[in-house]
Structures
1.
Amino acid sequence: MSLIITDECINCDVCEPECPNEAITPGDEIYEIDPKKCTECIGHYDTPQCVEVCPVDCIPKDPDHVESEDQLMEKYKQLTGQ
Ligand code: SF4
Ligand code: SF4
């Protein structure tokens, strides 16, 4: 499943450049993750890079976008043209 940024986000900007899929953008009030682009970093890294760097731990899994590891790998392949 993709991840989601909660309203605890302090707009510190550190997660955006870490995302290998360019899934993170500044929203109207807080940063947002595009569920069509987030693969939980599968294909690129062993762990979600945004979660690694977020200083306030405000990036949980999004229960509205449940996906298996295989589905996330498929998404990675589509995003990278493989
Ligand atoms: Fe981007 Fe990875 Fe965070 Fe998803 S888990 S938003 S792919 S850095
Ligand atoms: Fe918000 Fe966390 Fe990203 Fe900083 S790292 S902008 S607090 S989601």
Note: The helical segments are 49-53, 69-80.
2.
Amino acid sequence: MNIGLFGGTFDPIHRGHLALAREAQGRCKLHRIYFVPANIPPHKQRQPLSPFLHRFAMVALATAQDKAFVPSLLEAPEENGPIRGSQNKSHQDKPNYTIDTVRQLKQSFKSNDKLFLLIGMDAFADIAKWHEAEEVFRECEFIVANRPGYSLADVANALPESLRPRPELTKLFQKQAANGDLVLKGATIHLLGDLRQPASATAIRQATAAGKPLSRFVDAPVAEYIKKMGLYK
Ligand code: ATP
């Protein structure tokens, strides 16, 4: 089976995320996609986040209607996760590194299962800074959703140095839109065109604080949840 892993802060999950997942599902024939809210996202530690439980609840609501979309507790804080040993504080505060999540998920894989990591281009631009980035590329193929303004050269330049194509080749990529498949030694990247879904969690938090409607960003169950729980005020 082809299995997708879609990590994020999901504070909150919105139509941009769902559009990415649907497009990725069609493109790479994914049988299942795990939506994995991070308890402690390594790259967003300065921003105050909503509690994990709220972010997970919204992911569960947003994915409820789609059989292939699975809300995942793989990056839950220990007390909310499956029984997993110690409640040690320092362990709890550890950021959720994708490589650990990937390895944990793959433990349940059958021999012909294949893992694809879903990600937007803005997040992919920082991929070289990820913990054990080369290993992540070794463990799974990437599905990257383009965002306005990025070229194929930006995708190539974002790779960890050891995986980047030769500079002559990257130069040729400069005028090419990020589309199609990029197959390199050590990295396979499927590029989705711009999804034209301008939703962002930041815009939703701002709209909520300003008392504006959320219907263009999220479906009714998530909008209701935000209202009921008084999030983002
Ligand atoms: P924030 O506005 O708080 O930075 P966000 O809307 O980017 O949040 P995240 O949970 O940080 O949401 O994103 C998870 C993943 O979804 C990232 O890989 C990001 O690039 C991607 N993503 C977010 N919004 C969109 C969108 N509108 N279209 C395509 N991909 C998106």
Note: Confidence is low (pLDDT under 50) at residues 80-90.
3.
Amino acid sequence: MDFIPYKPQRFTEDQMRQRISDMLEKMHDRRSVREFSSDPVPLDVVRKCIEVAGTAPSGAHKQPWTFCLVTDPVIRKEIRKAAEEEEFINYKGRMSDEWLEDLKQFNTNHVKPFIENAPGLIIVFKHSYEKSEEGKKSNYYVNESVGIAVGMLLTALHEVGLVALTHTPSPMNFLAKILERPENERAYLNIPFGYPSDDCMVPNIERKSIDKILKEY
Ligand code: IYR
């Protein structure tokens, strides 16, 4: 591996304060959305958001991810049907009473119209390992790596004024089947994206304050 010089821009402390206040204010506006407008979105922008996700750090720089951008209505219909079948079983017994009670306030259920209504889905796959001519090659810290990439993807979508949902219709094996992913890939998250519908509502949540989430030593 070659090593090259790295000298990223340095800001004054005041610029740093300004930039992070601006970013925090912007990020507080990010919300998970389940009600999408049918307005089309510029897919070139979404592809760039995926490129941003692809800049994430990963274990041994293996970049163990694939982002499937799904807009095809036939495929989405199939995904919705399979997702709703799994979610029906989840809501009707696979999820614990405590879990259902925790979710009650968010009014979710097994019906997932956003899979078909949102302008598109980004279905993220993690690579449990890689295949090569010599056989299986290991990846490391795959969940951490893909989780970081997804965080960056959500930040990028928010940066361009798009909204998204992190949807986990577990078990998610049906996604690899429908999208014909190779055997080393496992579905990680389904991320419908788009603009919110005109009458979109979101729960009135509060975020933990800094003194609740930060412990300094
Ligand atoms: N996957 C289900 C259930 C669900 C679970 C959690 I934890 C949530 O924060 C939201 C929903 C669904 O998508 O409805």
Note: The pocket of 3-iodo-tyrosine is lined by residues 87, 90, 103, 108, 167-169 (CB under 6 Å).
